[in-house]
Amino acid sequence: DRKHRIDTAALPAFSILMRSSVQISLQNNNPSVPSNALPHGCPPIDPGGPADAVSYTALDMALRSHPALAREGSSTLNPTALAKLVEGLRKFSRENLGREAKGSRWPMMCLPDSIWRDRSRTGPLFIALVAAFKHRQSQKWRNFDFEMAKRHDENIAMLKRMEKDLIAAGHLIRPRIYFDESVSKDQISTLTQIVTRFEGSIVQTPLQATHIVAHDDEIDTPDTLEDKDPERMYLRTLTLHQPKQPAGYPQMALVHWWFWPPSYDEWMPSANVDGDVEEEVKKPTGINAWCVACRFVRDVAKFNEWGSEVDYAILEYEKKVQCFQKGLSTTALAQGGNALLEGAVSARYVFGSASGGLCEREIGTGTRSHKKRVYDGFLKIMP
Predict the structure, then answer these.
(1) Which residues form the Chromo domain (predicted)?
(2) For a 10 Å CB count at each end of the chain, is N or C smaller?
């Protein structure tokens, strides 16, 4: 069983209670620590606070060196300002693009929470923040403001600009779905509508897919068809953090609630969690695609955010998924796909001296082991 259980009587207030318990622990062991402070280096239990701001130091230096941000002053571009900006963006996204958002239709998808957690000098958060500052400059705003009602549409436009730049930089890739034969035609019709609505695409072979979607009796239970929140009873520990402080500062755990998107992950004292950090579940060998249950697609319609593949991964895919049951190993499937691709090239198109080409050269048709010798020149289409 990959799930760990947590016994909490009041989960909606758990984050507040958890933060209070940490502060009580700090004060009992270190009376000099203010009640509203957290130790240096502690995980961002208080996002946007002083401890969180420290993690933005390198990113702040990288942003300062960007030509488009050269004129930004120290009041708008510093680690503390960046921490507050990112927390403002996350809060605005949750309120307007998340499950709790008002209205019948979301104006865009939530950006993956992994973007907000990034602190690298040239990673996705760097790209997103450059886009945000450029948008602010184009609107001639003095400051970012996510509370002002009249800026709502422009803030959504800013998030769309961030999304566009993240896609262009290769940091945001929407799912390409292949439906296994274990999924009924009626289900495929419904799931296809969800995929296309939430910016995914349908492909015809597993090799083209980022996700192979199949039916799994253990995950695709009847209650998953209902539009209700999953129970927050089970979690898994993503990472542990021990602050570099004297005794009394609690070890913290970043936990993920099963079947909730990563934006709902949270820090809590590791003493409250039953279970160690788990080994990472990996994609099937030989194919660069996750093998997930149908619920992976259904849940995006609940949250406006693609979930964590580990929650939906079909572990015994070779026994349960039709494209593997037909005697094709992942390696054979990959080789068969490359052979199919090579055959499609050679069957329909003839390159060569007979076609009037002059310069001989090699082209790849799938892998390094599949090469064809061709000639530059016009292309003759075979009937």
Answers:
(1) 40-329
(2) C
